[in-house]
Amino acid sequence: MRIVSGFLKGRRLSPPANLKARPTTDIAKEGLFNILNNEVDFEELAVLDMFGGTGSISLEFISRGCTDVTLIEMNQINFNFIRKTRDELNLKDSWEIIKGDSFKFIEKCGRKYDIIFADPPYSHERLKEIPQLVADLGLLAEDGMLILEHPKDFDFSDDDHFFRHRNYGHVNFSFFK
Question: Buried b / exposed e across 28-42, counting CB within 10 Å, b at 16+?
Answer without folding.
Answer: bbebbbeebeeebeb
